[in-house]
Amino acid sequence: MQAEIAADIHLEAIEVLLNHILYVRGLYPSQIFKKRRVYNTPVFVSIFPPLNNYLASVLRSARELLIRQELQCLVVIVYQKENEPLESYQLHLKSLEAGGKSTVEDPHLIEFEQQLRAAIYKLSERLKQLPKLPAGSCQFKVHLHTTQDAFVRFSHESQYQEFPWLQAQTAESQPSQTISLLPLATVENVGLKMQAHILG
């Protein structure tokens, strides 16, 4: 399978998970989300243009890093104060070696879809158990973890200058009390292994 096609398949899953986190955790009013069926599962997706523009820029950058196999982790950080994260949602991404599952074994992506459907349901169950966030005062940001070489190369490409990335401070990327609730799901297919964790 071409790297571009695999990246697009995984980006769709990441987009669904990002929207789902924002909706379930109440970071935006529920009215800006529209119900859709993805992976034969009802999910809520943003219809708010400023949020959609930000997510599209993040996903465009993530796509380029995925194609190059340089995206290690995507982290959604929820915070009130800039350097004091309340919650962190990590999607660990790892390219599979030649022995991993491939689309040859799952040509119609049925198993992949089932794994993602299970991930969405598990995510919903875990998020329901978390305490409510302070109303109206929380924000979020997305960190893309990659190599130093990839960051330098990426930051000099003209097509990404409209949405520049900054190197995050090390202390900022982890909550002060890091408690792994448990892995939400492991999706292992289409040449990529994706694991989701909640830290808070």
Automatic annotation (TrEMBL):
Gene3D superfamilies xref list: HORMA domain
UniProt xrefs under PANTHER family: MITOTIC SPINDLE ASSEMBLY CHECKPOINT PROTEIN MAD2 (PTHR11842), MITOTIC SPINDLE ASSEMBLY CHECKPOINT PROTEIN MAD2B (PTHR11842:SF10)
Protein's recorded name: Mitotic spindle assembly checkpoint protein MAD2B
Domain HORMA: 4-198
Pfam families: HORMA (PF02301)
Regions annotated as coiled coil: none
Residues spanning the signal sequence: none
SUPFAM superfamilies per record: The spindle assembly checkpoint protein mad2
Organism: Drosophila rhopaloa
One Gene Ontology cellular component: zeta DNA polymerase complex
